[in-house]
Write a structure and sequence with these properties.
By secondary structure, the protein is an alpha/beta fold. The protein is built from twelve helices and 13 strands. The structure holds pyridoxal-5'-phosphate.
Length: 371
Amino acid sequence: MDYKRPQFFRVMQYAQRADRDVVDMVSGNPDWEPPQALREGLRAYADSNPEQFQYPASVGLRELREEIATRRGVDIERVIITNGTGEANHLAMAESLDRKGSEILLVDPVYPYYAGRVQMLDAEMDFVPVGEDGQLDAADVRAQMGDDTAAVVVNSPNNPLGVTYDADTIHELVSVAEAHDAMLISDEVYDHFDYSGRFESALAVDSPNRIVTNSFSKSMAITGFRVGYAVFPHPDGPNGDLMDGARSRHMLTNVTSSRPAQAAVLNALRETGPEYYEQNRDMLRDRIETFTTALDAAGAAYTEPEGAFYVMAQFPDFDGTMANVERLIDEAGVAGMPGEAFGEARSDWFRFALVTPEVEEAADRLAAFFE
Ligand SMILES: Cc1ncc(COP(=O)(O)O)c(C=O)c1O
């Protein structure tokens, strides 16, 4: 499958051209407010002196790196600010391939941009399928590791399945990476959207074989700001070359990342309490409840989301193909993603993003369509 041309655009275009109103459940763009302090930080920045409008350090604003390092309990030298988790994943994967091996191991269903990136990097990829319950078994990953495996990329809480991996799985994944001298790349962009209480960051296990990527895109509802980060092994320790390589790659590609966006995120990090994140989780819990109740009514199978804000569903006699995505848009007025965009394991499913105030309307429309 060609992952280099994301199917996402095709679905969006089809939905925009539809002859009727369509509830957009395609993309992962939050529809809720950012923290108040984010807006305040941005306003204050507009009045700062022109010096502040020039290049920040390529690795990112020092105060922001410090704030992240303190919160994540790591040395500041391990933190690089990136243009979102997207770039952090790119640096992590490219550097892992430069270090050793020619293959990246992914989980099926997969966040399609990982697969597109592997293809863009001219590397090989292999997929580890998840279990019936959507969970990843570290033993399956171990069984598929080979001498050529450069890295394993995992995402918890997970897009598209909505599962959260528990501490045992994360710890085992790190030891699998260590045993095969590969890197574990843990994308934790949905870490603030864990409803299960089981979320464990890969940072919990100290290891030179682990890279953690993250951003403020989802946690602060600012996908357009492009502020993310990666935590690499310490540049002075084992696998320290990865950080050196990532710094150069980031500098040669981007020069640096947006300074106003970093300043606003810094202000928001300092001034925002846990209630902001809690309130968004509560809202999403309600949406999950509404949507899955409608899925039950439609006779669908689905994975009960315990993290992130996506639901994958399988409807009786209605496969998750692009043709059926188009039918759902035209006949039900709901736009989701075809399961085939996420690999083979759930290619007959659909994925719906719960990032619209119209979740209830979408749920009613789906229930009526499948009645
Ligand atoms: C698993 C995963 N990783 C990374 C990203 C990209 O995030 P960012 O905006 O931080 O680049 C997304 C966005 O949907 C995602 O779902």
